Amino acid sequence: MLKLLFLPALLASALVYGQTASPPAQWSHAKVLEKQLRDADLAFAKATAERRIEGWMEFFADDAAIIREGKVLSGKQSIREFYTQVFANKDFTLTWVPTKAEVSKDGTLGYTYGDAEAKVGAQVSRGMYVTVWRHVGGKWKVVLDLGSQPRQQPKEAAAPSQQQ
């Protein structure tokens, strides 16, 4: 019974001290890294829009890979060779916006994902992307990038009463 009397006081003091205490350093560091990662993804998109292939390539690690249409491009040189042709088309644009950024507990890896849009002239392709990043020398570098187009949703099946 005595324990029950002290429970409200313990809860109240935990709430008061919890609200005034600063968050753990590890939590703060993780949030800082997540913001840096999101900012890196936004800078990646901006550099790509402004400088095309050179802006695109600036963010890749030497050992990066891209999964595109069921195929893997491995290494920065292979990625450059493939995308040089893509970005050579002046009608081609690629834009994206991250909706999520998360960093590993040790701060060495992270990922972003969000919505992407590729245009070639009037043809527009929309989808989602996932980018895996590695924190190296104070900078975030892309180690894996992949995208997908939205699946065509099947037409609604007829209600059971309409199938007869």
Give the SSE layout.
Layout: H1 2-20, H2 25-51, H3 53-57, E1 60-68, E2 71-74, H4 76-88, E3 92-103, E4 109-120, E5 123-136, E6 139-148
Parallel strand pairs: 1-6
Antiparallel strand pairs: 1-2, 3-4, 4-5, 5-6
Strand content bin: 35-45%
The ordered string of helix (H) and strand (E) elements is HHHEEHEEEE
Distance between the termini: 67 Å
CATH top level label: Alpha Beta
Main sheet specs: 6 strands, mixed
Short description:
By secondary structure, the chain is of the alpha+beta class. Helices cover 39% and strands 37% of the residues.
Task: Based on the model shown, name its key terms.
single chain, 164 residues, alpha+beta, Nuclear Transport Factor 2, Chain: A, 4 helices, 39% helix, globular, disordered N terminus
Q: What does this protein look like?
A:
The chain starts with a helix and ends in a 16-residue tail after the last strand. The chain is globular and about 45 Å long. Strand 3 and strand 4 form a beta hairpin. Residues 1-23 have low confidence and may be disordered. Helices cover 39% and strands 37% of the residues. It has helices spanning 2-20, 25-51, 53-57, 76-88, and strands at 60-68, 71-74, 92-103, 109-120, 123-136, 139-148. A six-stranded mixed β-sheet has the order 2-1-6-5-4-3. The chain has one domain: Nuclear Transport Factor 2, Chain: A. The chain is α+β, with helices and mostly antiparallel strands. The chain has four helices and six strands; from the N terminus they run αααββαββββ.
